[in-house]
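re: ur question from earlier - yeah i can do the single chain one, its not a big deal. heres the input i used so u can compare w yours
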Amino acid sequence: MPGSSEVPEIDQCDLLCLDLPHAEDIRTSLPGAENLAAAATLGKALADPTRLAVAAALLAGDELCVCDMAWVVGAAQNLTSHHLRVLRAAALVASRRDGKLVMYRLTPLGRALVDALLGQTAPPEDAAART
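and the output i got, formated as tokens:
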């Protein structure tokens, strides 16, 4: 339509083509539905910016209590505690009691995922300094 501001579909083939052996090899090698659901749960646990900040603080600080964590991420203690519960339920954070304090730390899985997420997001000035 002349003068239309519609954007053409660029994410679809113009021709129906299927390399069935190749496509079937890939389809059968994908993780099962249960494994995909578990992985999606891990992704959702880190998809919230505050939860990711909590996890990043644990990556930097190794082990923190809720009070310190709340101050570090700039959130209320009850909100921070909620986010820590979500991360713990996803097995990304572990806790231990130390007297009256509860100390939180990333699990090896949590450490690997947070490092993978945040290790790929170098600020532009850092990238320029490396060249």
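Strands lie at 63-65, 93-98, 101-106. not sure if urs matches, ping me
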